[in-house]
Each structure stands twice: as structure tokens, then as C-alpha cells.
Amino acid sequence: MDGGVLYDVGNFIRTLGLDRSKKDKSGLYVEDLDLILHYLYVRDGFVYTHERLRVQLALILIIAGATATRPNALIGNVLYKHAEFQLFPPSPGGTRPRLGLEFSLVNVKKSAGSSKILIFGFHEEHTLLHDPVLHMLALAFADGAFLNEFSSPEQIYEIEVPSHVDRVRIPWKAKWEDRAIFRSMEGLEVSASKALKYGRTRGDLVRLGRALGYAKILQFYDIRRGSGKKLNGENQTMNHRLGDSSTYVRYYMTDLIGNDTQAIIFGGDPQTDFVNMMGRLERHGLAPTELTEEQKQEVRDSPELLECRQKMSEALELLKKQGYRSYVAAKKAGKGQDYEKQKKRLDSLRKRLESKRLQEEIAAFHKTIHGKEIAQQLNGMKPTKDALAPSTDEYELEERTEVVGLFSQAPYVTTHEELFQCRLKLVSALAQLCNRRESPRYCKAKHARSKPRANVQPQASIQLDSEVSDNVSMEEKPSGGPGSRLAGKICPFCQWRDPEVGKAQRQKRWRIDSLARHVRSQHLERITMPFRCPYNDCQAVLGTNEHFASHSSRAHGDNYPPSIVAG
């Protein structure tokens, strides 16, 4: 960049008040990676839209750790033709061929003006949890991508390498060569062609980090820094030009010096591994993962959000003066853009404030928790030791139960043959898991069903349009007393999923047919399918309006008229 551009950037920093603080450069090491993968398979209670997302997330983390690659070079940009399995002759004294995986990264940053393809070779790992060959085999079997249509992983290891060749390459079907390995969803099924987006994968990593209690928001560059520190010849592997290590030192080296300088200066046995432990990301399993309802309410009552709501009300009042009874009516007439703009701004600001508040709570927790725990131990309360204890959790899918059991058995096998058999079973189990999806979990939370309050009194005001809410409608509507036809239900979206609507709207009760119109026009028509059930603590994934109606009736006791909800 020339001097003029740099001058403008400097002005932007001052004018916009941009953050100039130095970013914390921590690294995720193999111990952290195994901890994350263990949680992902064994402890994670999050319901993925499809279980393939879980397995391919594991492979993304493994390859990111093994290659120190940039996330954008890996996620959504690796096609089947960029990966190839190769069989080599057995090791001396062995009987089975050796299976390797050649993995090419083509979407890498330009180096010295030219782009360079990075090709990595992966082999089978004794630690199956972070074995890239095993996980890639599982995805390929799940897709049925092999040209020769192997019926089981055993068939691959039965192939012999002829004496006149050095290897046997295992080809893909032609239709799969240009398809992404890591793919996204289309509705409730895995897309055959739609590549996975970085934003979705980053969100999963952040969620896993919070569930494990890391003090810092996890990023893929934490993996890159941790792996880069261990790699020999960083400049070639990390694609830095001309053998100059200044780029690595400046941007990717962790803040903590990895060498045991004490041993170097004073003599004695170096304890580099112990020094590296000090440089790992701090975590605590009891750290908060989400805000409490009181904290969320404090965010909702912040002056910034109140100002946004005021602008929304002003935009709505303007629509009323123009003769529209609701925002939906104005939208159908091609109006209401200002209201929609203010609503999106409100939603974006709320998410940003909630994320900031959560990070503040996490930081406060880590600052005080160790003093509290020391006090407990001084009083005789010792901690339990269950970091990676075998799981006693129950899983809905038999395939996941089998995967967890096999991963738990792997560390205790004593022979190469036992490890090989465990590997084969894991490939098959993971491939089957990739083709399964958990059914909705019908929760029994105390707020899951909306019940009329005993002291609800009829409202005196009248609302003319039955399909809109307080924040969107122009007039009020009766909601009769207990026992009457009008003492209806609370909107689950307003109550648990849309905090901007305000306290009055969250507590408003509707006649069931009016509520169905409101849910359809104000929520279902705006939401992206598939979506999570709006009822409190329910993890069901719903794909259509009709699916929402049937699920609400079956799981939550709200009998929305299907014809009204469907529109």
C-alpha cells in the first residue's frame, strides 16, 4: 500500500474509534484438540441438524491441526479430487498394505505474487480420535464416492500392491470429483453440491470452546498458531515466501516463548513440555456458556436497544399514518423498508451486546474462580477427577453409541491387530452416523407449555387486525378472562426467541386462531428453514410450517389450526 492509503487507514482508526489493542496470540495444541474432539463425540448434547455435520467438523479440526492451514483454504474449498487414498506395500514383516491420504489445498494465499498448491500426506494414527485417514474414509463411505464401490473398509486392505508398481491409487466416481467434501444442508438433508460455509463452522468451534470453559473465544487461528509452533520448516508448510520466518514470528508465533530459557541460562534438564503447558489456552469446565435471564433482561433494557425500539415505533407509527394496519400489510404493498431496517439493526445490536456481556461474564469468572476453589480445598473440599472418564450418557442414535464405545476402547487395545479391527469398526460406524439425523427432542421444561394465568383480566381496548402483535399491530385486541374462549396461548417466538418485542408482548395471550395467523405472518414467513423449535429448551429441528404445527400439538399441547399456519 502506498503512503496515501496508509494515511487514510490511520485516519479511519482515529475517526471510527477502532480497536488498536494487540490481539491475544494463544495456541491450541494436540492435547486441546483431543479434548475438543472427545467432547464433540462423547459429551456434546447439541442437536445437529444432521450427524454428518459432527463428523466432518471433527475432520476439519484434525486437518487444521495437522497442517496449520488457514481456515478458508480448507472449509468449503476442498473437493473430492483434491483428496486421494493411496495403497503402498506392507511394512517389513507386515501383511497388510499401508493406506495413506494425499490431501491438496489449492485455495491458499498468494506468496510473492503467485499462488502455490500445498500437498500433504497423511498416514494412519495410533490415536484414532485424531486420525485423518479414518475420518476421511468414513465420509467417503457415507457418500458412496469410491469408483469401485467397496462394500466395507476391509475390502480396501485386501487389495495387493503389484510388484511392478510402487502404489495403487483409489479413484473416485466421476460425479463426486468436483463435489465438496465438507458440505452444508439443504432443508433437513445434506446437500450434494452446496459447500460448507466458514461462518457455520466457526460458530460450532466457538460453542465447543464455551462448553469446555475456555477463557478465550476459540478461533481456527488458535489451532494454526499451536500447530505452526510444532512444525519443522514452518516457512514451507505455512506458505511463507523466500524462507523468511519474519511473517511467522510476527503473526503466528504465540506470545509465550516456547523454549526453556531457565534451563538454557542456569543449566539443568530442560522442561520444554512444561513451559508449553503454560502457553496453552486457559479453560475451566464450570465457566458460563450463556447469559442468565436476568442478564439478558439487563441487555434488553440497555439505552442502545431502547433507542432502537423507539426508532422502530416511530417507523411503525409512520406506516399507521399512511393507512396501513400492520407492517405485514405495508410489506405486501412494497412499503415498510425503514421499519425492517430498524428491526434488523435492533437484532444485530442485541446479539452483539449479548456476546460482549457473555465474554465479560466469562472473564470475570476466570478472574475469581481459582481463589474460590483454593478456599474450598483449604476447607477440605477436594476436586473430583473425571476429565476424560468413560461416558455414562445415553444417546438416541445407536450409531453414535457405537462410535463413543469404540473411541473409549481404542486407548486400551494392546496389539496392532486389535487396533486394526477397532479402526475398521470405527470407519463403518462413522459412515453410518454420517447418514443419520436425530429426531426432535420433546422437552418437559416447566415453561414448555403455556397455561392461562388465574388473574388474567379482559382488556378494554380493541384490535382490528387479528394477525399482528403489539409491536407490529396498530390497535389492541381483546384477550378474555380465564376459562373463556379468548384466554388463549402465549406466542412461543415472542416469549422465548424474540427478546426485542418487550415484556407486554411476551406475556400477551391470544385466541388460538389469531395466534396461528400471528405466528405465520410475523415469524414463520421471516424465518430461515429449517429452524429450531421456539419453545423453551426444546431442541427439535423443524422444516416446514406444517411440521411446526404438528410438533407444537404433539410436544407442547398448542393445537394450531394447520390450515391457518400453512397459509
From TrEMBL:
All residue ranges annotated as the C2H2-type domain in the record: 533-556
Pfam families per UniProt: DUF3435
Domain of life: Eukaryota
Region: Disordered, residue numbers: 466-485
PANTHER family: FINGER DOMAIN PROTEIN, PUTATIVE (AFU_ORTHOLOGUE AFUA_6G09300)-RELATED, FLUG DOMAIN PROTEIN
Protein name: C2H2-type domain-containing protein
Source species: Stachybotrys elegans
Taxonomic placement: Eukaryota, Fungi, Dikarya, Ascomycota, Pezizomycotina
